[in-house]
Amino acid sequence: MSSTRHNSNSIGLFCGLLAMFACNAVAVEYYTEKPSFLPSCRIYEPGFTKCSTNTIQKLVDQLQVGIPEIIEKYGPWDPMHIRDIIFKQDNVEVATIRANLTEVVVTGFSQIKIKESRVSKKDFSWQTKIFLPKMRLDAKYKMEGRILLIPLSGAGNIFIEIENVDILMYTKTQLYEKGGFTFDNVTDVQVRLNMSRVRTQLDNLFNGRSKEVERSTNQFFNDNWRDFYEALKPLIVDTVENILKDIMGAVFHLIPANFFVEDIPTPQQLYGKTA
Ligand SMILES: *[C@@H]1O[C@H](CO)[C@@H](O)[C@H](O)[C@H]1NC(C)=O
Ligand SMILES: *[C@@H]1O[C@H](CO)[C@@H](O)[C@H](O)[C@H]1NC(C)=O
Ligand SMILES: *[C@@H]1O[C@H](CO)[C@@H](O)[C@H](O)[C@H]1NC(C)=O
């Protein structure tokens, strides 16, 4: 399965309607001056993790305000439109389903709280603790298969709403040099999720043949949300990982790592000359 953001043409359209020269100034390949919203930290000085936690929170707050280069690529941060999700899970006890989600919109990222941002001095990988009061996915679905022994086939609207989400994110990066700055190349993102509740609604289950069975099936999924979540976990985890990897990838190709961690080594210093 895969999911990535739509390219948004809204900025281009907006620019087209305004003067061209004004918009050429908006998007740059990468920043050569530290943006004022970003407080930087020093990893070889005490209190780095506390400082870094605040810096990453400021970055996330700015994503909500809007970073033009990121909006141009992915559209707004919240609600966020993401690419279609094709989900296929076979031969698993809890679910055998094929589901396609289109017109996918994810809401809730504006409320992100960064609880802790650790950076490894060894390889400059990150470990980030994030809290989200609510995350909601709305989409059109088409589905065949079974979840928790219930045979399902249908097409219509779906929402999945997750409350009090704790995210533990492991990010691998590779340092590279561009224009005399050190940058992070985000090469891998993995998340672990905990939540207090999952709510869901699938309209038009069984292709609308029985509203009563549709209602009781949705009720069953909500009453047994932990099992329902286990069944859909790969879909939810992959979706979150893909969103974070895309956005962080774009942000860290745009903003030099030096603006986050002033005393970050150069790639040559970290990997040696042959790297
Ligand atoms: C989902 O989309 C794929 C590729 O477009 C298609 O092959 C598959 O049949 C679709 N699955 C469902 C359940 O509609
Ligand atoms: C989820 O909860 C378990 C058990 O309480 C805990 O060990 C784990 O660290 C938590 N993970 C996250 C991402 O909060
Ligand atoms: C980032 O990593 C990917 C995958 O390892 C690689 O293909 C790409 O060339 C790297 N980009 C830069 C700028 O180093």
Automatic annotation (TrEMBL):
Domain of life assignment: Eukaryota
Signal sequence annotation: 1-27
Query: Where in this chain does the entry annotate a coiled-coil region?
Result: none
Q: State the GO CC annotations.
A: extracellular space
Q: Which Pfam families match?
A: JHBP (PF06585)
Record's keyword terms, sorted: Biological rhythms, Signal
Any single biological process term in GO: circadian rhythm
Family from the record = Belongs to the TO family.
**Which PANTHER family does the entry link to?**
IP09473P-RELATED (PTHR11008:SF25), PROTEIN TAKEOUT-LIKE PROTEIN (PTHR11008)
Q: What is this protein called?
A: Protein takeout
Source organism per UniProt: Drosophila rubida
